[in-house]
Amino acid sequence: MELTLPGGPACEHATEVASAYSAPSLLNHSMRVYAWAAALGGVHHVGFDPELLFVAAMLHDIGLAPEFDSHAKPFEVAGGHVAWVFAAGAGWPPERRARLAEVIVRHMAAEVDPAEDPEGFLLSRAAAADIAGRDVADLPPDLRREVLERYPRLDLVEEFLRCFGDQAARKPESSAAAAMRNDLATRMARNPLEEN
After folding, report:
1. Among 88, 87, 82, 117, which residue's Cα sits nearest to residue 103?
2. What is the extent of the structural domain holding 158?
3. Is residue 1 in some structural domain?
4. In this structure, are residues 141 and 196 in contact, taking their beta carbons and an 8 Å threshold?
């Protein structure tokens, strides 16, 4: 399976935004999340909108950036708002903007119904694979090697735990806080992708 990224102005600009506001390890995480999501779409026979999924992957953690962090909202909700504004600037119609925000918010849900929200399902599963190793065995080994070579993990564990620890300390009812309480650090350390 070969990694193919969608093109077009929205995808290019989403990558530019993620590059400007994300640490290198989080930018690479976003790129890997799209790759894993596209692969899982094939594995689970879930059709998806490549542009919508790619933009969501690039912006799904934008709410962790200090420039967009909300003192009151969970990072995924703040990120959904930023993505809505981004999509408005890209000329997307209101319904598509709302879908983008919804996909980003749902990426932190424990379960997303693929029939109801294919992009949300794939983004959630792919982010969980990259962060905690969920469903990594579903990803073709050749693709894993290619993606990890092109977008290495760098200091993802340390950077992600720092961001989530900060979110948890300030927003104890957030999904980030719940993840920290559920031993995210151990799950990240045991992620098979860390061994590649």
Report:
1. 117
2. 9-195
3. no
4. no
Closest CA to 33 of 13, 59, 14, 12: 59
Q: Which pLDDT belongs to residue 196?
A: 67
- 3: in domain: no
What tokens were used for 69? 């962090």
Q: What is the CATH number of the domain that holds 76?
A: 1.10.3210.10
Q: Which residues of 98-113 are buried (b: 16+ CB within 10 A; e: fewer)?
A: ebbbbbbbbbbeeebe
Q: What is the total count of domains within the chain?
A: 1
Would you state the pLDDT for residue 186? 96
pLDDT along the chain (196 residues), means of 10: 86 98 98 98 97 99 97 96 98 98 96 97 98 95 95 97 96 96 96 88
Predicted pLDDT of residue 20: 98
Look up the pTM and report it: 0.96
Predicted confidence at residue 45, as pLDDT, reads 97
